[in-house]
């Protein structure tokens, strides 16, 4: 297996290079072939690795080369394949493959067709590198690279000022988190003397590392995770990132890249397990984000924004699970979420495509009969997101709530349950506003409504099957295939926390029934408000005007940032620029430059161009050396 | 008469045959007026000769043969440099036709001269005797003088050659004087024999005098200050591909000769010659960088920059002697390999630009403005090479500097490494300035290029660029190769 895992990330990289160089004047409209084939290859290899790694207790580490090494400071380029990496590889390459195929239809006719596929391939490479990295430095490299791709692709429609601004915002907000992550990586090296996972986790397992250092490392790493996975208060970039093309939103900002934070915490499970305080922080942030984003999701009008807040909220669930040490369940939810959220985004994309680019749900309605394939697949995704039996979301969300309950964090559980109710409500609000009721679009758009091409529908169907069936991989308790598959990775972390496999008890069944009932209530309420009594939303909006306005404006977090952090930074920077930068730094730089220039000018006459002078120079050099030799 | 073992010189014999073949075939080629015509045949012969020499050299890896009564050896040390020289010369030849064609001086002897120079360089690296060293150096030097004068109807080219010749002769004289004194002290010219005789009495004034004179003769070839003043004039006046060749080939050959001769022949005086090279390196880095700062002509800037790079390399040589540690020496070898590619590439792009506008292009910064738009490939490639020369991570230049300076630190001379790093930070100013001109300045006139980069020029630049990146990203194999080549010096 060690012989081929390097190909998993490299195939998309090759596709990227070739597409970028030859795309413009040679490959052009068939630019999708190479990326699709490369990603299919990566998926096949991931599958092979997945089969081979089953039951292996030790990770397979392949050192491709040493980048450089001086004494004890080694920078190896090594990949690590274990159960966690293989699940991540399958999710990333599988979803990427489907979305690449979908993009063929969705991006058809766009002027930057080859550019789109080139960057998507680069993203595939970076993300696979991230999940296959064998040490924190390489992980960091992949982490930054996916951030860069995200920035490029959010700003893909660079001629739109909003898109350019959104790209910039994503980049800057992520910098905040990455700053912490970078410090964390340095601290790991200082503390452990190595950056390799194997070495670091071994030392943590043995013990003897200071509690304070571990806590600092865990919190710094989590800071990076909060940025990448859009957790409160660093969540503000993700909704804006919806300015990118819909396949980008589906792949990068729903299914894969934003889950990198979850992966990072799960990968560092041993570190987090050793410091309960850090786990608690993770749990609190996750739980709060889960309900906070869900509430905002209720009032959004843009179909993609609803899904964006829903993603933030679902990522919150994953961190909630990590916060109680349910690592495998967090990864399970990551996987099911990748299926149904990609499905929802692609379905939304299909709706937008059929309406000629309209994203406002106030201008949709009654599309059920017009685009049936999109409708049925999208409903499957909505049922999964709401957590209705037997769809994937039911199993994974229920596993999370169950493990939170078992850990005794009843407050987390209660908040999670309310968030589940809200999730079901806003999800079906979206479905009902889009597909039911009277058409609200203008006539011309109405006439042109068409079902999307096959290249878009087939991925939807495959993902819908995934949204229906993926949950059976992670049945609760001892039945969970995925949980026991991941056991070798999380074994030592579970050992530290004292978590054991459990048998299903009556409470588990009660909890499941409760959460399904709650989800059903959410759907019924949505049906009542958006199908039965369509006057109710407006009425509620009027009655609850102040509350509505606060929620509609996303709790004014952006405004708060603009008035405080951004303002302070801008004003402060300006002051520093005027006083410190211009006077002291520039003064020093210009002074130095002036000094060198001066020195150059003074010395210039020596280089007169006359050979006599050159020979004289050589002779003086000779004379000095000889004098030194003779007299010293 | 006993026939000496000829295996060690097979690569040179191949080159010799190829060079003669070039001269013999050339008269039979059709010409289209003076200095024009299809020279593919002679170019092919020259490239085939270099390729043959390269392949044979590689096939000889791991052997240890002493031949010609100990005058030269075949070991991995020599093989490393033979391969490096063959690659450097090959890349030079690939970039030449376009340039020579544009100046109507496309003559076959050009290729023959380069091959003769390479033979001299090969023998310098393989030499274990001062007499052979001197002969090889002269073979290389005389070919170089002719190459510098290749555009003989141009005053600048003549000036370049004459200056090179006069100063070169002066340096040779100093070196020969040194060699004669070495012989006087030790009664031998063979490195090993000299080392055995002088080993015990390294400190005496007479020996040091001899050692330093030899050092100065070779310091001239690597253009160390204050023996550097010929460099800018010669590089600027010589045809650009020739300048490119000078800046990597003869310089690397001189470094190989310095390291081999001083390590093997003067082990008793390591502290002294180490110190000499350390002092020279500081002066050289200072002079190269300061003068490069004030240049407005890119070609001349590159000439000063090559002096600065010689300075960085000399820190490694000096530290190797001062501390008696092989680590900085390995760094120097790796740096030479990295430097070959990035510097050839940088000069190559200039040669391409000049060939597009032979009359009006004068290599000034002003004329580089707007190149990012008019010829994006040339601008991107030149940026890559300049970034590598600056030492930006991810490029060969970074790895080279990293290993040389970390070797210097290893040898306990951290202050020297600090000077080197600070001065190479200064160098960012004049390298990045070119990039700024190419991408952010509006051109003052129309400087459109006629043809995109193609043919041999494209091949040469592509190989240089790819090698620059590969050495920057995956340097470990080269480091291992350098390590195993270096230790053969001590056998």
Largest sheet of chain B: 2 strands, antiparallel
Could you tell me the strand content of chain B as a percent range? under 5%
Number of domains of chain B: 1
SSE pattern of chain A:
HHEEHHHHHHHHHHHHHHHHHHHHHHHH
Would you tell me the overall average pLDDT of chain B?
A: 89
State the share of residues found in helices of chain A, binned by percent: over 70%
Shape of chain A: globular
N-C termini distance of chain B: 28 Å
Tell me the strand order in the biggest sheet of chain A.
1-2
Helix/strand structural class of chain A: mainly alpha
Chain pair forming the biggest interface: A-B, 30 and 40 residues
Largest beta-sheet characterization of chain A: 2 strands, antiparallel
Distance between the termini of chain A: 65 Å
- Rg estimate of chain B, integer Å: 21 Å
* Count of individual beta strands of chain B: 2
> How are the strands of the biggest sheet of chain B laid out side by side?
1-2
**Shape category of chain B:** globular
Seen as an oligomer or otherwise, the chain set is: heterodimer
Order of helices and strands of chain B: HHEEHHHHHHHHHHHHHHHHHH
Measured on Cα atoms, how large is the radius of gyration of chain A?
28 Å
3D architecture notes:
The complex is a heterodimer of chains A (632) and B (491). Chain A is 74% helix and 3% strand. Chain A is mostly helical and 632 residues long. In chain A, a hairpin with a 2-residue loop joins strand 1 (60-70) and strand 2. In chain A, helix 1 runs antiparallel to helix 2 (33-53) and helix 8 packs antiparallel against helix 11 (260-267). By secondary structure, chain B is mainly α. Chain B has 20 helices and two strands. In chain B, strands 1-2 form a two-stranded antiparallel sheet. In chain B, a hairpin with a 4-residue loop joins strand 1 (65-67) and strand 2. In chain B, helix 3 (76-102) packs antiparallel against helix 19 (455-473), helix 7 (191-198) crosses helix 10 (240-265) and helix 13 (326-356) packs antiparallel against helix 17. The longest helix of chain B is centred in the middle third of the chain and has 32 residues, at 155-186. Chain B is globular, with a radius of gyration of 21 Å. Classes of the chains: A mainly alpha (632), B mainly alpha (491). The A-B interface holds A 65-70, 593, 596-597, 599-601, 603-604, 606-607, 609, 611, 613-615, 617-618, 620-622, 625-626, 629-630 and B 162-163, 166-167, 170-171, 174, 205, 208-209, 212-213, 216, 220, 225-227, 229-230, 232-233, 276, 287, 289-291, 293-294, 399, 402-403, 406, 426, 429, 473-477, 479.
């Amino acid at each position: 297996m060690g012989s081929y895992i390097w190909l998993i990330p490299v195939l998309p990289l090759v596709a990227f290079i070739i597409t970028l160089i030859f795309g413009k004047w040679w490959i052009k409209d068939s630019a999708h072939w190479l990326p699709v084939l490369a990603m299919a290859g990566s998926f096949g290899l991931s599958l092979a690795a997945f089969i081979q790694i089953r039951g292996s207790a030790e990770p397979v580490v392949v050192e491709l080369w040493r980048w450089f090494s001086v004494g004890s400071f080694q920078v190896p380029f090594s990949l690590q394949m274990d159960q966690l990496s293989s699940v991540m590889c399958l999710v990333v390459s599988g979803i990427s493959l489907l979305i690449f195929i979908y993009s063929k239809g969705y991006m058809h006719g766009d002027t930057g067709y080859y550019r789109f596929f080139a960057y998507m391939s680069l993203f595939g490479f970076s993300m696979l590198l991230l999940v296959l990295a064998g040490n924190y430095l390489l992980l960091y490299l992949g982490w930054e690279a996916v951030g860069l791709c995200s920035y490029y692709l959010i700003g893909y429609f660079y001629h739109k000022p909003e898109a350019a601004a959104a790209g910039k915002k994503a980049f800057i907000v992520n910098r905040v988190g990455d700053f912490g992550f970078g410090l964390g990586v340095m601290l790991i090296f200082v503390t452990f003397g190595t950056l390799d996972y194997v070495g670091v986790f071994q030392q943590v397992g043995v013990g003897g590392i200071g509690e304070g250092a571990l806590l600092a490392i865990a919190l710094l790493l989590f800071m990076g995770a909060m940025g990448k996975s859009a957790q409160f208060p660093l969540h503000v970039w993700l909704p804006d990132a919806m300015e990118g093309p819909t396949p980008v939103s589906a792949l990068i900002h729903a299914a894969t890249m934003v889950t990198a934070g979850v992966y990072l915490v799960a990968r560092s499970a041993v570190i987090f397990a050793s410091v309960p305080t850090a786990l608690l922080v993770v749990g609190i942030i996750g739980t709060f984000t889960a309900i906070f984003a869900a509430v905002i999701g209720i009032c959004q009008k843009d179909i993609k924004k609803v899904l964006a807040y829903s993603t933030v909220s679902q990522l919150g669930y994953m961190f909630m699970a990590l916060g109680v040490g349910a690592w495998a369940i967090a990864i399970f939810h990551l996987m099911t979420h990748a299926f149904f959220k990609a499905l929802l985004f692609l379905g939304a994309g299909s709706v937008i495509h059929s309406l000629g680019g309209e994203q406002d749900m106030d201008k949709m309605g009654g599309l059920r009969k017009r685009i049936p394939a999109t409708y049925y697949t999208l409903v499957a995704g909505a049922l999964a997101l709401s957590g209705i039996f037997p769809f994937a979301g039911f199993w994974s969300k229920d596993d999370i709530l169950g493990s939170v309950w078992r850990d005794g964090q009843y407050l987390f559980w209660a908040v999670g349950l309310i968030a589940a109710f809200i999730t079901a409500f806003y999800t079906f609000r979206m479905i009902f506003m889009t597909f039911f009721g009277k058409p609200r679009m203008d006539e011309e758009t109405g006439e042109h409504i068409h079902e999307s091409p096959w290249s878009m529908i087939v991925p939807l169907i495959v993902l819908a099957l995934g949204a229906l069936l993926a949950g059976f991989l992670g049945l609760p308790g001892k039945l969970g295939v995925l949980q026991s598959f991941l056991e070798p990775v999380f074994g030592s972390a579970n050992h530290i926390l004292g978590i054991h496999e459990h048998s299903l008890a009556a409470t588990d069944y009660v909890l499941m029934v409760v959460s399904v009932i709650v989800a059903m209530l959410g759907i019924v309420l949505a049906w009542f408000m958006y199908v039965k009594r369509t006057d109710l939303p407006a009425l509620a909006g009027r009655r609850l005007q102040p509350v509505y306005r606060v929620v509609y404006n996303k709790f004014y977090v952006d405004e708060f940032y603009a008035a405080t952090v951004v303002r302070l930074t801008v004003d402060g920077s300006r002051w520093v620029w005027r006083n410190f930068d211009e006077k002291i730094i520039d003064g020093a730089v210009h002074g130095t430059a002036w000094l060198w220039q001066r020195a150059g000018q003074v010395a210039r006459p020596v280089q007169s161009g006359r050979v006599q002078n050159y020979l004289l120079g050589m002779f003086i050099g000779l004379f000095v050396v000889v004098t030194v030799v003779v007299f010293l | 008469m006993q026939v000496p073992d000829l295996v060690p010189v097979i690569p040179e014999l191949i080159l010799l045959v190829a060079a003669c073949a070039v001269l013999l075939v050339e008269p039979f080629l059709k010409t289209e007026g003076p200095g024009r015509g299809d020279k593919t045949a002679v170019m092919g012969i020259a490239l085939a000769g270099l390729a043959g020499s390269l392949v044979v050299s590689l096939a000889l890896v791991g052997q240890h043969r002493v031949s010609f009564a100990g005058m030269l050896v075949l070991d991995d040390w020599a093989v490393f440099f033979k391969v490096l020289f063959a690659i450097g010369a090959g890349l030079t030849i690939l970039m030449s036709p376009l340039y020579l064609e544009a100046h109507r001086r496309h003559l076959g002897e050009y290729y023959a001269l380069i091959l003769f120079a390479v033979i001299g360089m090969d023998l310098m690296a393989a030499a274990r005797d001062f007499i052979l060293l001197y002969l090889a150096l002269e073979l290389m030097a005389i070919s170089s003088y002719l190459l510098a004068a290749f555009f003989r109807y141009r005053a600048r080219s003549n000036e370049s050659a004459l200056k090179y010749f006069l100063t070169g002769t002066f340096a040779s004289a100093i070196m020969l004087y040194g060699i004669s004194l070495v012989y006087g002290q030790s009664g031998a010219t063979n490195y090993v024999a000299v080392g055995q005789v002088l080993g015990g009495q390294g400190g005496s004034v007479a020996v040091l005098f001899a050692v330093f004179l030899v050092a100065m003769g070779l310091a001239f070839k690597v253009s160390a200050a204050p023996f550097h003043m010929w460099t800018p004039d010669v590089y600027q006046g010589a045809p650009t591909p020739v300048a490119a060749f000078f800046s990597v080939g003869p310089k690397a050959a001189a470094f190989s000769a310095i390291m081999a001769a001083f390590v093997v022949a003067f082990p008793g005086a390591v502290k002294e010659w180490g110190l000499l090279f350390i002092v020279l390196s500081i002066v050289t880095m200072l002079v190269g960088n300061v003068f490069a700062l004030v240049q407005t002509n890119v070609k001349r800037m590159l000439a000063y920059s090559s002096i600065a790079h010689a300075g960085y390399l000399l820190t490694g040589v000096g530290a190797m002697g001062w501390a008696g540690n092989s680590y900085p020496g390995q760094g120097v070898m790796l740096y030479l390999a990295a430097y070959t590619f990035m510097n050839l590439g940088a000069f190559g792009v200039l040669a391409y630009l000049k060939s597009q506008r032979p009359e009006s292009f004068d290599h000034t910064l002003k004329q580089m403005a707007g190149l990012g738009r008019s010829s994006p490939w040339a601008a991107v490639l030149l940026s890559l090479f300049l970034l590598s020369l600056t030492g930006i991570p991810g490029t060969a230049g970074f790895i080279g500097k990293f290993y040389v300076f970390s070797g210097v630190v290893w040898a306990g001379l951290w202050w020297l490494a600090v000077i080197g790093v600070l001065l190479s930070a200064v160098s960012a100013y004049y390298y990045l300035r070119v990039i700024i001109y190419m991408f952010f300045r509006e051109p003052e006139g129309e400087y459109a290029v006629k043809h995109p980069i193609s043919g041999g020029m494209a091949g040469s630049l592509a190989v240089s660029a790819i090698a620059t990146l590969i050495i920057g990203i995956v340097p470990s194999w080269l480091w291992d190769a350098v390590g195993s080549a270096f230790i053969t010096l001590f056998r």
